[in-house]
């Protein structure tokens, strides 16, 4: 807090006239990040709206790589977050989901968004290096012990398959699966 106050050219105690603690600052910054995410529209098909929302959230979180963990590990009731959640629930409820299923759908979608984003941000291998990395590790995956992993790694190493996970593949699986739960 002292460093922040110093950077702002004020006394640390002055900050406490506007915020309660450091958590308030983090919550406020996270809410600003959330304000960049496209909220689902009721004017289009629910799947289209939720797909756009998810892609937008993923892109925003990649632009702000520090923000995913505070989003998933804190309760945020800032105005942007509340608007985002309300629009999400509204889209799902208007599409025919029950309240319970809308909540489950929203959480399944967000789990995919957050999990995929964290995995992408923390992947130890650059996309361009997948084939060479697969070739490097292939000797550690003997075909007699791990036949399926060996086969897949060989396909990536030989360029038959790129091995790259795609956010929209999982997203579409979730959206298609959720469609069966609408009333």
Structural account:
The protein has 10 helices and no strands. Helix 4 (46-63) runs parallel beside helix 7 (99-122). The mean pLDDT is 94. With 183 residues, it is mostly helical. The radius of gyration is 21 Å and the shape is flat. The protein has one domain (25-181): Tetracycline Repressor, domain 2, CATH 1.10.357.10.
What's the quick description here?
The chain has 183 residues and is mainly alpha-helical. Helix content is 65%, strand content 0%.
How many domain modules?
1
Please state the overall shape, judged from the principal axes of the Cα atoms. flat
Note poorly predicted spans: none
**N-C termini distance:** 51 Å
Mean pLDDT metric: 94
- Strand tally is 0
Detail the topology: elements first, then pairings.
Elements: H1 2-8, H2 12-15, H3 22-34, H4 46-63, H5 68-73, H6 79-94, H7 99-122, H8 130-137, H9 147-157, H10 167-178
Helix pairs in contact: 4-6, 4-7, 4-10, 6-7, 7-10, 8-9
Key structural traits:
single chain, 183 residues, mainly alpha, Tetracycline Repressor, domain 2, 10 helices, flat
